[in-house]
Write a structure and sequence with these properties.
The protein is globular, with a radius of gyration of 26 Å. The strands form 2 sheets. A 4-stranded antiparallel β-sheet has the order 4-5-7-6. The chain has a 3-stranded antiparallel β-sheet with strand order 1-3-2. The chain folds into 4 domains: 12-80, no CATH class; 84-247 and 377-411, Gyrase A, domain 2; 279-318; 331-366 and 416-481, 2-Layer Sandwich (Alpha-Beta Plaits), CATH 3.30.70.3180. It is 50% helix and 10% strand. The chain starts with 11 loop residues before the first helix and ends in a 10-residue tail after the last helix. It is built from 21 helices and 7 strands.
C-alpha cells in the first residue's frame, strides 16, 4: 500500500508569492487534480503519475475537464477541486441564504461572542426606494438599544452568577450571555463575516442558484465568487446561468398556493411534532436485525414485531452500550424520522440552520408571529423599551414592503420569528440534542431542542434512550447500564 498526500489548502498569499517567483508556471490551479483523478477510472498508471502529467499539460487537462463534466456528465470530478473564501461585510440575512448549501463548510462570526459595532448593510433595494433615511434611522435606533442593553445586562449576569463572576476564566461566559441577549434587538442587516470552504461542484451549484436570486446583495456576492473561481479554474465552473427551475418554480407554486389555501387562523405553537415514523422502535430493531443477519428486511420486520418488549429493549440497548457522548448512533437510526413545525426567532434559526444534514425549509420572517423576548430583559425592566423598538421596526418594515419588491426584511431583528419545517432522522436528532440541549448551549435553541427531544421520546422511547445534551449524557447512561460511561480521553 502507498498513500500520498496529493495536496491541501494553501493560503492565497502563499500562492501569489509562488506565482511571483515562478511567473511562467501554469499549474497553480486545482484543475489538474480534477483532471488527473478523472483519468483514474480508465488509465492504469498510478495516481501520482497522472497528476504529474496533468501539471505538465494544463491546457490539455482543462479540455479533459470540460469534456468529462460537460459532455459526459461526470460532475463528481469537480469535487476534487476545493476553494476557500473569506466573505466579509455581508448581512446576516444574506448569510442565511449562503449557508443553505449543505455540502459546504462554514464558520461564521458569532454575535454571541463578539460585541457588535454599528456596521450594517444598506441594500440597493432600500437605496432605490427613497426610504434610505428611514431605514438607517431605524437600524441606528436598534443598535443604540443593543449597546444600552449590553451595559445593563452585563452587571445583571455578574450579580446573578456571583460564583462564576469570581472566577476570571468564566467572566467571558457571563459577558457572552449579555451579548447574546442584547443582540435580539439587532437587525438582519447587521454585517457579519464568514469563512467558506466549497468544492467546485457545489460552488457551481451555488453560483447557478444565486443567478436567479432577487436580492441585489446576493447578486453582487454571486458575481464576485464567480469571477474569482473562473479566473483560477475556468474548466470546472461551467453551468452558471439562471434557468427556469430556480427562477420560476417557487414563484409559480406560491401563486397556486394562494388560490388553494384557506388562510384562517394561525397556529403559533412554537414546537409541534407533525409527523413521525410509526412504530419507530420496532423498525429500528428490524434495521439492526437486518444488518446483523442474512434475512431480507420483510423477515426482519416480522421478527421485530414478534419480539417481547424486554428483548427489543435489550437489543436496542446494545446499540448504545459502547457509545460516548461524542459518538454518532449507528446508521440504522437513519431509517426512522420525525417532522416538526417550528416557530422560531432569527437568533434560534441562525443556530438550527447549521444542522445541514437535516431537511429544513423556512417561510419568510413574519412580524405577525410575534417576537422572542429574552427573559433577562424582563428581569432588568427593559421589556417595554425593547417592544417599543420592535413595534417601530414592524411599522417601518410594513412601509418598506409597500415601496420595494424585496429587501424590507433587512430591517427586522434577531427577535423576529419565522415558521420552519424540520425533518430529522433519529441519528441527526441525537446530533442536534447533544449540541443544543447541553448546558453550554444558548437558551433559545436549548428550549426548542428540549421540546423537540421531549416529543420524540413520546413516540419512540427506545430509539431516544440517550437523547440529551452532553452534560446529561453520563447520568442517562448510568441509569440505563448501572455504571458510568467510560471517558475518552480519560480525565
Amino acid at each position: 500500500m502507498k498513500v500520498i498526500l496529493a495536496g491541501y489548502n494553501v493560503d492565497s498569499e502563499v500562492i501569489d508569492d509562488l506565482k511571483k517567483k515562478f511567473p511562467h508556471r501554469e499549474d497553480v490551479t486545482p484543475e489538474t487534480l480534477s483532471a488527473s483523478y478523472a483519468r483514474i477510472s480508465r488509465d492504469p498508471r498510478p495516481a501520482n503519475e497522472l497528476r504529474a502529467v496533468a501539471r505538465k499539460e494544463v491546457e490539455k487537462a482543462r479540455r479533459s475537464n470540460r469534456k468529462i463534466i460537460f459532455k459526459m456528465g461526470h460532475h463528481s470530478v469537480a469535487e476534487h477541486a476545493v476553494f476557500n473564501f473569506d466573505i466579509i461585510g455581508v448581512s446576516r440575512l444574506a448569510l442565511e441564504e449562503i449557508e443553505k448549501f449543505r455540502l459546504c463548510s462554514y464558520t461564521e462570526k458569532s454575535q454571541r461572542y463578539i460585541s457588535l459595532t454599528d456596521d450594517f448593510v444598506i441594500p440597493d433595494e432600500i437605496k432605490t426606494s427613497g426610504q434610505e433615511n428611514l431605514f438607517v434611522r431605524t437600524i441606528k435606533s436598534q443598535n443604540a438599544l443593543y449597546h444600552k442593553l449590553f451595559k445593563r445586562l452585563r452587571p445583571y449576569f455578574f450579580e446573578k452568577n456571583k460564583e462564576m463572576a469570581a472566577d476570571p476564566k468564566k467572566q467571558s461566559i457571563l459577558e457572552g450571555w449579555a451579548k447574546e441577549d442584547a443582540r435580539y434587538v439587532a437587525s438582519l442587516a447587521t454585517e457579519g463575516q464568514l469563512g467558506m470552504t466549497v468544492n467546485a461542484r457545489n460552488l457551481e451549484f451555488m453560483i447557478r442558484r444565486f443567478a436567479s436570486t432577487k436580492l441585489a446583495e446576493l447578486k453582487e456576492f454571486n458575481q464576485k465568487i464567480y469571477n474569482l473561481a473562473k479566473e483560477v479554474a475556468p474548466s470546472i465552473i461551467i453551468f452558471t446561468e439562471a434557468h427556469d427551475f430556480d427562477t420560476k418554480t417557487y414563484e409559480e407554486i406560491e401563486k397556486k398556493a394562494q388560490a388553494l389555501l384557506e388562510l384562517e387562523g394561525k397556529n403559533t405553537q412554537l414546537v409541534s411534532l407533525v409527523d413521525h415514523t410509526p412504530d419507530a422502535d420496532t423498525k429500528l430493531a428490524a434495521s439492526l436485525l437486518h444488518s446483523s443477519s442474512s434475512l431480507p428486511y420483510a423477515e426482519c420486520i416480522r421478527n421485530a414485531r414478534r419480539l417481547r418488549p424486554e428483548d427489543k429493549k435489550e437489543l436496542l440497548e446494545l446499540a448504545f452500550k459502547h457509545m460516548e457522548f461524542y459518538d454518532f448512533p449507528l446508521r440504522e437510526f437513519e431509517y426512522v424520522s420525525l417532522t416538526y413545525d417550528l416557530v422560531i426567532s432569527a437568533s434560534c434559526f441562525a443556530q438550527l440552520k447549521r444542522h445541514r444534514m437535516a431537511t429544513l425549509t423556512a417561510q419568510d420572517y413574519n412580524p405577525g408571529l410575534g417576537v422572542t423576548v429574552p427573559p433577562s430583559l424582563q428581569e432588568i425592566g427593559a421589556r417595554k423599551e425593547f417592544m417599543e423598538i420592535i413595534d417601530e421596526t414592524n411599522r417601518v418594515c410594513s412601509l418598506l414592503k409597500e415601496k420595494t419588491d424585496c429587501g424590507a426584511e433587512y430591517v427586522l431583528t434577531n427577535a423576529h420569528r419565522r415558521r420552519v419545517l424540520l425533518k430529522v432522522n433519529a441519528r441527526e436528532l441525537y446530533h442536534i440534542s447533544r449540541l443544543r440541549e447541553d448546558a453550554t448551549a444558548q437558551w433559545d435553541i436549548r428550549e426548542v431542542a428540549g421540546e423537540i427531544s421531549r416529543l420524540a421520546r413520546e413516540v419512540m422511547p427506545l430509539t431516544c434512550l440517550l437523547v440529551g445534551g452532553k452534560d446529561a449524557y453520563p447520568g442517562m447512561y448510568e441509569e440505563i447500564f448501572g455504571r458510568p460511561p467510560k471517558l475518552f480521553p480519560p480525565e
